[in-house]
Structures are given as structure tokens and as C-alpha cells.
Amino acid sequence: GDSVTQMEGPVTLSEEAFLTINCTYTATGYPSLFWYVQYPGEGLQLLLKATKADDKGSNKGFEATYRKETTSFHLEKGSVQVSDSAVYFCARSPYNQGGKLIFGQGTELSVKP
Amino acid sequence: SQTIHQWPATLVQPVGSPLSLECTVEGTSNPNLYWYRQAAGRGLQLLFYSVGIGQISSEVPQNLSASRPQDRQFILSSKKLLLSDSGFYLCAWSAWTGLNTEAFFGQGTRLTVV
């Protein structure tokens, strides 16, 4: 079945370091791709999304590009802040069914001052 | 604007007791509604989704059930809780139509079965 695989954490970075969290997905159909963020004790918030090949989602300095040839949707940020400490989830959904999500395992990010 | 409310925030229940978690959405009509579970150390898994009143689809076999008695109300229930039902339960909604739909999540309920 469909799946999403993301790099395991925890990831610990110093403030202003470059961040990459890898994510790959199964290529069945034409999925939409998402990154969600979960701050401690809270629900999930959509960070960014992309709905077709070569689309780039971006928000709050984070970016991810929908790469069909490598079935990847890696999350990047040029300079992380302490406030970015959270758990990040990569997810896919069938096209135009954005609520039926298949999530990766989540990657915990800890940013130290 | 649309909002989603989920309660309670935390719950400790004994094994064998019943469960009822409620979720309501405001500011939209005919939303698609979802229940997800995040077990300890694991990712999120879709449990149920609903495209309309009384219409429930189950994604995985389990000890839980869901109901949608009103357009913007979604309830997760169990008659007898198991230890394995412990986890973080998230309700979500998405628009029923349109391109590029995305899910909006509630704050979650942390359930501990003891």
C-alpha cells in the first residue's frame, strides 16, 4: 500500500544551522504532499504543501519541492531558530482528498541556542 | 473563519470503561471529518472518516467506533477500552469539495488507559 518514509530523529541543531529532513513517498496515482508540524502538547499545523510535480511549497522560511523523479519531498530551512523545535511530519494524500493522509513516522527537531 | 474544537484535552480511563470523544467544527458546512490516532512512538494513523451525516468509513479494524449525528459533529466511542487504545487522538476536517484540499486539526485528546 501507499506509504511515506521520513528520516528518523531526533535531530539536534544549533541555532542558525541549515536543516534538511528527508521524505520519500510511494508514487501511486497523483498524490498531494504535505509537511505538518506539531509543537509540544499541541495538535498538528499545516506547514506547507505541494499538489503536483515540481511545485515548491514554502512557509516561515521552510521549503519543500515535489520531486516526482525521485519521489521525494524533502523539507529544508536555511537558518533554524529555537522556536522551530517541534516534531515534523511528512504526509501524502490522494489528489484532491487532502484529509485522507498517510503520515511518515515524524522527525523530532531540537534547536539549541 | 473556521474553527475545530475537540474535548476533553486529557483523559485517564480504566480498562473496560466506555469512551466518548467529541469534535465539532464551526464556520463551514458539510465538511469531511476525520479521526486520527498517534500511538506512543509511532506516527499518525487514520481511523475513521466521514463525508456526511451518518456516513462513516473505517480505515483499520479496532475496538473503536465513530458516529456523525450532526453535520459538524464527530464522535469517537468505545464500549470497553483496552490498554492498547491509549494514545493521542486528533480530529480533523477538510472541505468537501474543491482543489487542493487540506486538513485542519484540533488540539487533540491524550487518552491514557490504566
Give a written overview of the molecule.
- The complex is a heterodimer of chains A (113) and B (114).
- By secondary structure, chain A is an all-beta fold.
- Helices cover 0% and strands 48% of the residues of chain A.
- Chain A starts with a strand and ends with a strand.
- The mean pLDDT of chain A is 92.
- Chain B is globular.
- Helix content of chain B is 0%, strand content 56%.
- With 114 residues, chain B is mainly β.
- In chain B, 38% of the residues are buried.
- The chains are: A mainly beta (113), B mainly beta (114).
- The A-B interface holds A 32, 34, 36, 42-46, 49, 51, 89, 93, 96-106 and B 6, 32, 34, 36, 42-46, 49, 90, 92-94, 98-108.
Percent of residues in helices of chain A comes to: under 10%
What's the total helix number of chain B?
Answer: 0
Percent in strands of chain A = over 45%
- What is the N-to-C succession of helices and strands of chain B? EEEEEEEEEEE
> What fraction strand of chain B?
over 45%
Low-confidence stretches of chain B: none
Work out the radius of gyration of chain A: 13 Å
Rg over C-alpha atoms of chain B, rounded to the nearest angstrom? 14 Å
Mean pLDDT of chain A: 92
Q: What order do the helices and strands of chain A follow?
A: EEEEEEEEEEEE
Secondary structural class of chain B: mainly beta
Mean pLDDT of chain B: 91
Largest interface: A-B, 23 and 25 residues
